[in-house]
């Protein structure tokens, strides 16, 4: 589950991480009120107005701007709220901005220069350990840094048995070229950041940039946070932060129906029971010359009503040119799935895409008979390769 910047910062602050302070505003007048409050609390006269959407690269799309007075706060916030923000991480249509974060200006003058760093905490799947990735090149796309100057990216893996050790935090501060007060501040920052990551059950924390201010404070100026969906049952305070407006509406609807659905960019809809079989089915579609339009696992207890609901979800995607239903009947009975397909077909009226159904396992013979005798334009298959051939045939 992705969070907005202001929500990620709330989590960071709760674990003692210094953040760039800010207040959320839903319209221009709220933004002015927020700016006034920040001025009273921090003394800042300038404010940064940041669009709150689940996408990176907001500044490139015009979603992050500096306001030097209250008139500019009102004007900039009014222009950003309601806009469709297009960034390198959004679709061509962009994402509608419903709120902005009015943040304090932390790039204040001082005796020493400011510095920007990159830092993230995530799981290294190759080793099964958490790791801290960091770089001196903060404020830039980390992908670009990795491509052009990979020697400027460092990683520190953490042993799960010991957690982050003091020498590791100091090593990070040293590699970032810090000394004196800034060095001490960074070691505290790293320790608090890692604690926030672990104890919030997050799958990723990305801070870009981490700022060393001119008076040697270390703070998170941005925060991109993803919480592990599987842990939300014990992190209900974070589950309440979910913003459904930022998510794919079809995926939200499927989730409400208890379906494991991920929207993809292909042309062949998939309905499968079991994640492993679903992945194999997607490979099958690729080999047949198609592209999977979705990942859809109906689960092991699929009945006719559940299959019908899944059917309707798949057909909401206008890019779908064919549907492959691949069910192995272990817990689920194949005849129930077949009946769900037939019911969905009849209830939805005309369906203009070819449907291939492969049912194997419990009551597969009864299921095939139901499909073959339904009078519907549904093709049945027995073998995996047979299903692949039929997909290839209908896409030709």
UniProtKB/TrEMBL annotation:
Q: Which family does it belong to?
A: Belongs to the succinate/malate CoA ligase beta subunit family.
Report the cofactor remark.
Binds 1 Mg(2+) ion per subunit.
Cofactor names: Mg(2+)
InterPro entries assigned: ATP-grasp_succ-CoA_synth-type, ATP_grasp_subdomain_1, Succ-CoA_synthase_bsu_CS, SUCC_ACL_C, Succ_CoA_ligase-like_bsu, Succinyl-CoA_synth-like
> Where along this sequence does the record place binding of ATP?
50, 57-59, 106, 116
Name the chain's protein: Succinate--CoA ligase [ADP-forming] subunit beta
> EC annotation?
6.2.1.5
* Entry keyword Nucleus: no
Q: What's its catalytic activity?
A: succinate + ATP + CoA = succinyl-CoA + ADP + phosphate; GTP + succinate + CoA = succinyl-CoA + GDP + phosphate
User: Listed GO molecular functions?
Assistant: ATP binding; magnesium ion binding; succinate-CoA ligase (ADP-forming) activity; succinate-CoA ligase (GDP-forming) activity
Q: Which GO terms describe its cellular component?
A: cytosol; succinate-CoA ligase complex
Q: Which HAMAP family match?
A: Succ_CoA_beta
Write out the function statement from the record.
Succinyl-CoA synthetase functions in the citric acid cycle (TCA), coupling the hydrolysis of succinyl-CoA to the synthesis of either ATP or GTP and thus represents the only step of substrate-level phosphorylation in the TCA. The beta subunit provides nucleotide specificity of the enzyme and binds the substrate succinate, while the binding sites for coenzyme A and phosphate are found in the alpha subunit.
Q: Which residues form the ATP-grasp fold succinyl-CoA synthetase-type domain?
A: 2-210
List the Pfam families. ATP-grasp_2 (PF08442), Ligase_CoA (PF00549)
């Amino acid at each position: 589950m992705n969070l907005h910047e202001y929500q990620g910062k709330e989590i960071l602050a709760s674990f003692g991480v210094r953040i760039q302070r800010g207040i959320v505003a839903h319209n221009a007048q709220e933004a002015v009120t927020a700016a006034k409050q920040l001025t009273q609390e921090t003394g800042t006269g300038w404010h940064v107005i940041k669009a709150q959407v689940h996408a990176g690269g907001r500044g490139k799309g015009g979603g992050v701007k500096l306001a030097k007075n209250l008139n500019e706060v009102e004007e900039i916030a009014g222009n950003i709220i309601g806009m469709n923000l297009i960034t390198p991480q959004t679709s061509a249509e962009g994402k509608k901005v419903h709120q902005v974060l009015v943040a304090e200006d932390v790039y204040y003058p001082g005796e020493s220069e400011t510095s920007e760093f990159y830092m993230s905490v995530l799981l290294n799947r190759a080793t099964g350990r958490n790791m801290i990735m960091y770089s001196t090149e903060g404020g830039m796309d980390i992908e670009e840094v990795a491509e052009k100057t990979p020697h400027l990216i460092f990683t520190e893996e953490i042993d799960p048995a010991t957690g982050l050790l003091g020498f590791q935090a100091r090593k990070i501060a040293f590699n970032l070229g810090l000394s004196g007060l800034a060095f001490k501040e960074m070691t505290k920052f790293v320790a608090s950041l890692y604690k926030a990551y672990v104890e919030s059950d997050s799958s990723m924390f990305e801070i870009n940039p981490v700022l060393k201010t001119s008076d040697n404070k270390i703070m998170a100026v941005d925060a991109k946070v993803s919480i592990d969906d599987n842990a939300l049952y014990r992190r209900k305070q974070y589950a309440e932060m979910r913003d459904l407006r930022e998510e794919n509406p079809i995926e939200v609807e499927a989730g409400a129906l208890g379906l494991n659905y991920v929207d993809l960019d292909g042309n062949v809809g998939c309905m499968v029971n079991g994640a492993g079989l679903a992945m194999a089915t997607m490979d099958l579609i690729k080999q047949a010359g198609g592209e999977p339009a979705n990942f859809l696992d109906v689960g092991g207890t699929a009945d006719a009503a559940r299959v019908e609901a899944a059917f309707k979800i798949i057909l909401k995607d206008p890019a779908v040119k064919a549907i492959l239903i691949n069910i192995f009947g272990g817990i689920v009975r194949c005849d129930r799935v077949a009946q769900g397909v037939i019911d969905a077909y009849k209830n939805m009226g005309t369906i203009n895409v070819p449907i291939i159904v492969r049912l194997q396992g419990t009551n597969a013979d009864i299921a095939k008979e139901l499909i073959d005798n339904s009078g519907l334009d549904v093709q049945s298959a027995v073998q995996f390769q047979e299903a692949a051939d039929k997909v290839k045939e209908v896409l030709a």
